[in-house]
TrEMBL record, chains A, B:
Keyword Signal assigned: no
Pfam families named in the record: HGTP_anticodon, tRNA-synt_2b
NCBIfam families per the UniProt record, alphabetical: glyS_dimeric, PRK04173.1
Highest taxon above the source species: Archaea
Any one cellular-component term (Gene Ontology): cytoplasm
Organism annotation: Promethearchaeum syntrophicum
Gene that encodes it: glyS
Protein name per UniProt: glycine--tRNA ligase
């Protein structure tokens, strides 16, 4: 299969097997970049969200949920009204008049964006004599287009903004969180939810859409705590693959696998707390069974950094379809956010005691920002494996839509179905997701379930009636063992929570 | 405590204990009807959503997730552009000019809305000589105000609509669902997510807000299947409290507790499939430990029904603070929706085979529509119990934010803390939510945890060091037993999944 063939097949299977449908609404004129999660996609997305929640909770993050719609002052204070824009350019040919996002246009023309200064786009376009990619017409001037989506509400109506990120709405709750945390810092908190951006050209399926979901974790912390951070000590020997701004500038194409401690010694990063957050981001992605060769941390160069960032690294994943793409940003935001909100709101509660007696300081913020849709998309596309006789969806057991299947070998005798049905219902009763299928040959049923990410299939055969055992089949390598029906629920639970492996199951 | 005192105390505790904060953003000028879920509120809301998901999944509903933003044609087809409005009226006094939602205004003036025909509001206001409730000025004419919120997106920009309900976006996926379900009916599907309405006057905390979350389940079904519905047979002896339109018209103030079968025999409802959906709605609410005296099903009278409804019943809950309020609507929508979408989209895939050979029909829809925020609010407010010495939050173990607490009796000897910490970490490791607290006397720690819904507290004392047992305290009645540390995880798991009760724990 060529790469293009494989990409098409993956996208086709995502739709046909009920993972992602769209662009939506399919029965009308679809909206660009608008997608639906079908039944299997939604099960997987719920599991992914639970996987993320569990990891954040394990590290003592609280979760909050804030409004999607907020007044303009919030986004003036955050800096988004002034600085949250894309550079756009329009074709001057009246028959075309197409509008382009400048960076995307240049990228598609084959320019290496990492070598272009975004503040000098106009000069670059003139120097290179770049024309409209659609009609070869002359292009107008580079302009800035704010990406926030507004809406009018109330009577008389006022303008509100659909939040372009969750992070800022979390910052607004700081005084409440500080009291909730019994006035202690650091505070660990995350929010998972929608954000909205008026993208110039939605594209690449779930990767660039106008409504999308984020999971953004924040640590409110004092500067002295950033340098003396207990969780870091436990993880400082953890290795991550880093591609620093310096390496990028020196045209060094390769990332370096290095411990957090070494990265700090070598001054690639500065702060233990920030280093720990890089570990958290990296570990979350790796834990989804995404091969490490397709993961790296890339540092933002100075001209790439967002207006609030002291330091910024992206987790990038090498997509089978779209190449290296950001899935998570880790940002050292300093005291930018709470200082701005203090200035705009004049609220004293944004100050906290510093280390020196009587000193009042504004807490600093370290942020980890995931795109949930992107993480979903990458976890799914990386899992497709096309073998000679079958399509295997090799998803991590904790995020796969349905980890178990129950099959009676044949429809008759009725006892086969009765035993199977009982096993299926026991699994469901114990919160273990499973499918029950009696349609078609056992081989066909294996093929169907392999394609949607089932990890283990229990098959009930004639021997089951005699000795109360069934076969368990490991979908990955198609190997089989017999297990006792009595021990099946406990076994499934242990497999689901990684407390046992297929290899560890004793032969009976 | 008077009712008002109790209401204030409940609302105060909801905020102070980290359940609901707002109106948001609190550090700026808050937006009416805009709230945040704090750390405990969010944990509880996640649990509530999982509780709902589990119940729907148990009844073989698939889940989908559709876009929040959709093109106008969708809402023309659904009937919302034409018919989704509130009646409003404005004061003509130029110094006032206040705007009112007519039904709310009349209700607050003490009129019984069930006795007013909504199509004759203008006549009613003139007849009763009603003046502006704020300034006694003359009121203008009754007008219709569409409740949908629009937004402009794209380049050049077009108008889009923030969906006013999830249901319609689920209907649009019918052709996909039908194939996914191997072209079988009925199809059971639900969607849990945001909807947006430009409410004239957001009020009553989470009960009427402009952005809110729904959980709407749909059954796509043939008319013959509505009358011959297997799940109904299993539940026909289930009793629900019904207050029919007829009883309301006859001024009969009381609901009648009756089996589904009797309700059909007496022609209070017509269809077994619809009856089963009433059971599902009722059972979901009752399962949250909301006392049955505070639950009833109320039928819509003809002039109340939405434009799509053949029959409509609301589950109402008697709020401690706001009185009887709808939390769920169950609607027999007939073939209204798919017929409209077929007409507007011209798509053949909205037809399915009927019973007669060669016949093509449009599937019917039965709907169950919950307000998630409302359900959350009612479950929470009903759980507050103020006793002489303590505030108890008596939440169902499956939705309470943190079901377990672990306390070393005292800070020393260090072994007490070591054993406690180990138990706490074991619970977390096994996905069992718990808090660990060493601050203050054991009595104070009990009080603090009772107030936030902890169900069971494990206390580690000197005897624990000797014989590896701890006390488990049932927060509800403050009774205690000793249990073995070795068996604690299994015990907690069983309590959490209702597989054992505190009473069943053997004394050792």
């Amino acid at each position: 299969m060529t790469n293009d063939d494989e990409s098409s097949k993956i996208l086709m299977l995502m739709a046909h097997r009920g993972f992602i449908w769209g662009p939506s609404p399919e029965i009308y004129n679809p909206v660009k970049g608008s997608y639906e999660f079908g039944p299997l996609g939604k099960l997987m997305k719920n599991n992914l969200e639970n996987y993320i929640r569990k990891l954040f909770r394990k590290h003592n993050f609280w979760e909050v949920q804030c409004p999607l719609i907020s007044p303009e002052i919030v986004w003036k204070a955050s800096g988004h009204v002034e600085r949250f824009f894309d550079y756009i350019i329009q074709c001057e040919n009246k028959d075309c008049n197409n509008l382009f996002r400048v960076d995307t246009m240049l990228e598609q023309m084959g320019y290496d964006l990492t070598e272009i200064n975004l503040n000098e786009l106009q000069e670059f376009i003139e120097k290179e004599k770049i024309k409209c990619p659609d009609c070869e017409g002359n292009l107008g001037e580079v302009a800035k287009q704010n990406l926030m989506i507004t809406s009018k509400l109330g009577f008389p109506s006022s303008e509100y903004i659909l939040r372009p990120e969750t992070a800022t709405t979390t910052y607004l709750t700081f005084p409440r969180l500080y009291n909730f945390n019994r006035t202690n810092l650091p505070i660990f908190v995350f929010q998972m939810g929608y954000a909205f951006r008026n993208e110039i050209s939605p594209r690449k399926m779930l990767l660039r859409t106008r409504e999308f979901e984020q999971c953004e974790g924040q640590i409110f912390i004092r500067p002295d705590q950033e340098l003396n951070f207990e969780p870091y000590e436990e993880r400082k020997n953890y290795k991550i693959k880093m591609w620093s701004a310096k390496a990028q500038e020196q045209n060094d194409k390769k990332s370096v696998k290095i411990t957090l401690e070494k990265a700090i010694e070598q001054k690639i990063i500065q702060k233990p707390a920030y280093a720990w957050l890089l570990y958290l981001a990296y570990d979350l992605v790796k834990g989804l069974n995404i091969p490490e060769k397709n993961i790296r941390l890339r540092q933002h160069k100075d001209d790439e950094k967002a207006h609030y960032a002291h330091d910024a690294w992206d987790i990038e994943i090498k997509s089978k379809i779209y190449g290296w793409t950001e899935v998570c940003g880790v940002h050292d935001r300093g005291d930018y956010d709470l200082t701005r909100h203090q200035k705009y709101s004049k609220k004293k509660q944004l100050f906290v005691p510093g280390v020196k007696k009587g000193e009042k300081i504004i807490p600093h913020v370290l942020e980890i920002a995931f795109g949930v849709g992107r993480l979903f998309f990458f976890a799914l596309e990386q899992a497709f494996k096309f073998e000679k006789e079958r399509n295997l969806l090799d998803l991590h057991i904790q995020i796969t839509p349905v980890p178990f299947a129950v099959f009676p070998l044949m429809k008759k005798p009725a006892e086969l179905q009765q035993i199977s049905r009982k096993i299926y219902e026991d699994l469901i009763e114990n919160d273990i997701s499973a499918i029950y299928d009696i349609a078609g040959s056992i081989g066909k049923r294996y093929r169907r379930t392999e394609e949607i990410g089932v990890r283990y299939a229990f098959t009930i055969d004639h021997q089951s009636i005699e000795d109360k055992t069934v076969t368990i089949r490991n979908i990955e390598d198609m190997s089989q063992k017999r297990v006792k029906i009595d021990e099946l629920i406990q076994l499934a639970t242990n497999l689901l929570h990684n407390k046992t492996t297929f290899e560890d199951i004793p032969e009976i």
